[in-house]
Amino acid sequence: MTRLGETPPLHPAFSLFPVVNGTLSVGGMSLSALSDRAGGTPFYVYDRAKMTERVKLLRRHFPSEIKLHYAVKANPMPDVVAHLAKWVDGADVASGGELTVAKNAGFSAAETSFAGPGKRPEELAQAVEWGALVNVESVREVDILTRLAEELGRSPRVAVRVNPDFGLKHSGVKMGGGPQPFGVDVEQVPLLLAEIGRRRLTFEGFHIFSGSQNLQSAAIVESQNLTLELAIRLSAWAPGPVRVLNIGGGFGIPYFPGDQPLDLAPIGENLRRWMTPLRAALPEAQITGEMGRYLVGEAGVYVCRILDRKVSRGKTFLVVDGGMHHHLAASGHFGQVIRKNFPVAIGNRMGEPATETVSIVGPLCTPMDLLADCIDLPLAQVGDFVVVFQSGAYGFTASPHRFLSHPPPSEILV
Amino acid sequence: MTRLGETPPLHPAFSLFPVVNGTLSVGGMSLSALSDRAGGTPFYVYDRAKMTERVKLLRRHFPSEIKLHYAVKANPMPDVVAHLAKWVDGADVASGGELTVAKNAGFSAAETSFAGPGKRPEELAQAVEWGALVNVESVREVDILTRLAEELGRSPRVAVRVNPDFGLKHSGVKMGGGPQPFGVDVEQVPLLLAEIGRRRLTFEGFHIFSGSQNLQSAAIVESQNLTLELAIRLSAWAPGPVRVLNIGGGFGIPYFPGDQPLDLAPIGENLRRWMTPLRAALPEAQITGEMGRYLVGEAGVYVCRILDRKVSRGKTFLVVDGGMHHHLAASGHFGQVIRKNFPVAIGNRMGEPATETVSIVGPLCTPMDLLADCIDLPLAQVGDFVVVFQSGAYGFTASPHRFLSHPPPSEILV
């Protein structure tokens, strides 16, 4: 935590959204107009054009053979998923609830895959009935799917989610390498593949995912190389041709002071080099990248309003009508070991000089309800808008809305 | 985090609930019967008799002059609040939503107070219209209440929430002393009292709260002494007699290995010694203790079911159908700096010897979804019940239910 009087290092400039007459504008609307549209503060607003730009940016860098899937868990708002359904090639879901959202948003079963370390039998049935691809993560799931094949007279589509023997270096979240509840250890995969071959299951390929929220392209390149080599190696044990190869994502966005945006160029170049050897080794394989946060994280902001200004023993608090119950990650209680400030601004005083050091707190009776600790901002007044950037992913749904029984935030797509 | 192979220190024995034929029983019902009642796992179950016992225990130790309030934020389930309304003397609420719950549960406006660092104008209006006591925490709130007094033709009841010049030592959560968004710094209170005296407001007293989740009675005794001395000192500036004096709570419950239950005896004795000097100094003052977690925390358990057993590189994972989206505190992401395991058991194998070391994880695609890390448990099977104790407070409502779009847990009171 930054101590009183210290000046924290500066955030990277977040200039994704235009400023009109000193006020931030999202999707061509001012914060006041957005607040009216949302029914007042607090609210999340997502900019569809920014998501589309992100998809296009990835397509420019990636070989055209690579398909792009949206990881619904990053932001399952139905309007957001429906928008992305028009721009990406498929969806990856992590629950039966997300599967329903993807289906309703217009994704096809053929292009939807379902992963998760603890799939309930009814969720597996839902996926099989619809015809989605199930990324199996244990022998038990293979058994349940075999039973469902009998019951439903289907041949469920399966891929094996592999827990590789490497992790994605320098990741915000490590999910591969070492003991993991995710996927099947690579050492156990050949046995599981043989078992799948003996069941009434349609083997389609592999899902290999080693980490997320990574800002270092060299680490992503290294992990993609290891992933592709591993897929080729594992294909020798496969009960049929590899048709699907989900190489995960792991692409991060900058949140904190010092973070630099990910450089896509070396990742794209490396994937291009892989296309020829991949065609030789896995001629039928469709390579898919899975992106959640990278597509939607920077396209969303959380907006609340200042209720009160309080000075307590030399420290200035801006008390706002939103807080950790709406945006757990910004409060620092969502996987961070050391709390850091999200990028925050007074949305109707953009460009005004930062003349005071303040902490921004919510209405909850707990010191955890802190949106920004000792940051330099323009002199703000009651009624001003506080904007938290980089809030389009793992914001609304990853927060304890019912904590202290305040109204939940609203969500709008513009 | 405990490393693979290390044996963590043991939890205190949690023998609050009886075991019948090896299965935990809550409110006279087995886990299977409870699961049926709840519509399946995962669910929270709260035992009304345990809450009543807690109230009675406090009454035995406290002087009879002291009133007991329930802090609704700890568990706002309407059935729980309605049960406690029959046993305690009043309610403390932290939002307009909680105020509605308290009112519907049968608490009277006369015995309900409303605190919070960021009360919205409509919440203040709701409190004034009903006639609840508002613990004011800033000059702005005094201004809004003055305006409401005119508009509604009322004289709003107010107490001053004081940010003392001391904190509660050894607290899990420090909320007094130093710069705080909570309450008004004691140095500023005389000025605010003078201001209140000039407005159309009914001054009733003070709310002095310095921390929570404390297990050391000596620290609570010291803090209560400082609180009572401070209230007497501040009463010299009060615009009228002190009728209400909320001395907070701060009473903790044991969660982690090494935690010992709070010893109420010295706290009760100390309060008894205070009754005579308090009657002399503040003859009209009703002393109130505010308890949330202490009344309900141990009365509730979270119950989920094992979906899968997985061994990955020598580490055994029990994958359950609940997790951090239902019980954020048990996952270690609710204010803990270092993650510790909540007390956990295989609810249908109580008393069986602990023969394996396992980690209990939920169905979410994130390493944060961890309910217990490397604990020793009896050999458990798919379908067994996993019980998380000490889950009656800050469990259900303090969790991000929508994260990854799984169904929310249900809640039952037995």
Q: Can you characterise this structure?
A:
Two copies of one chain form a homodimer. Chain A contains eleven helices and 22 strands. With 414 residues, the first copy, chain A, is of the alpha/beta class. In chain A, helix 5 crosses helix 6 and helix 8 runs parallel beside helix 9 (264-281). Chain A is elongated and about 70 Å long. Chains A and B meet through helix 4, strand 10, strand 16 and strand 17 of A and helix 4, strand 10, strand 16 and strand 17 of B.
How is the topology of this model organized?
The structure is a homodimer of 414-residue chains.
Chain A: E1 19-20, E2 23-26, E3 29-30, H1 31-38, E4 43-46, H2 48-61, E5 67-71, H3 78-85, E6 90-93, H4 96-104, E7 112-114, H5 121-130, E8 133-136, H6 139-152, E9 157-163, E10 173-174, E11 184-185, H7 189-198, E12 202-208, E13 211-212, H8 217-235, E14 244-246, H9 264-281, E15 286-291, H10 293-296, E16 300-312, E17 315-320, H11 328-331, E18 344-346, E19 356-361, E20 370-377, E21 385-388, E22 410-413
Parallel strand pairs in A: 4-22, 5-6, 5-15, 6-7, 7-8, 8-9, 9-11, 9-12, 12-14, 14-15, 17-19
Antiparallel strand pairs in A: 1-2, 2-3, 4-16, 10-13, 16-17, 16-21, 18-21, 19-20
